[in-house]
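Batch job 17 of 40 flagged for manual review because the log was empty.
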Amino acid sequence: MDLLTEILRVALLTAHLLAGALAGTGPLLVAGLRCVPSLRQDDQGVLRRVAVASLLAMIVGVVLGFLSGGILWGAADEAYRKAVLRFPPQTYTLLAAEWCFTLVLYGIYLTWWTRLAKRPLLHGAIALVAATNLLYHFPTFMTVLGAVAGDPSLASEAEITRPVFRRLLLTPDLFWKVTHFWSLSVLVAGVAVLWSATCSRHRTVAKAEAPRRDASCESAAVIAGGVAGLVGVMLLMVSGMATLVQLPALQQRALLGGDVNATVAFVAGVMMAIGLGKLLLSAATGEASPRLVRWTVTLTVVAVAYMAWAAQQAQSPFE
């Protein structure tokens, strides 16, 4: 695979991971924050924008997923093709149905935003069902597919049926990879809330239209986004370490000095995650300027890109 194709794959993978992360946990975080009375007053502002962005991210994510899969299929990646064909056709039918089910629920959640504002638990239940459905089916499938493509001997069966799928998913290495993505999803959702709240605050201040209630709501959302993002970073560190320990020895060596490109990308990603944690700690205490939030968003994107590049250079099944 040439360098240009690799760069394109990393760019698509980065965008796909970020979109999928926001789509999975964005509405879940929004639903939880709407249970806080001070944030429930935000009828059309910070939290609704994150919910809308999450729905759009879900659509963008599946488009990017098809593009990434198309590149692998067209790049004569025989291992990937064989792995795709080892899953029964009904697996893909079920995934499509689950995706549509989640999309419909997200649509209902947004449509009833105002109607169920005073019943946050009932309203949040819709987001809970939709988000957990998405988080269970898609990260798990992509992780197992990547693992089987990287090492077909993981499953001796010719067809990856549901029992085989569950068995693979519960192995330590794949379990921690899925957990690592879920951790990323918490981080991205928190950063999205932080970004939305800061943009809203900056816009209202610039227009000299900052009612006390809205300002209080935005400040609470900034802190909530910072806390959620910080929790996501800490979970990423733990799950990332567990994932690294579970990798095959060859891939561990590549990331820890055996391959220059993989090691540099891996170390850069870790350093950026540490810097991201510092920025989110400031946001969690309410100190979130537009500049700090821009750096937070930038570090999130670049750190994910570096980790995606490191995984690809180490030929990790997590890609």
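Reviewer: the log was empty due to a logging misconfiguration, but the result itself is present. DSSP finds twelve helices and no strands in the chain. Unflagging and moving on to job 18.
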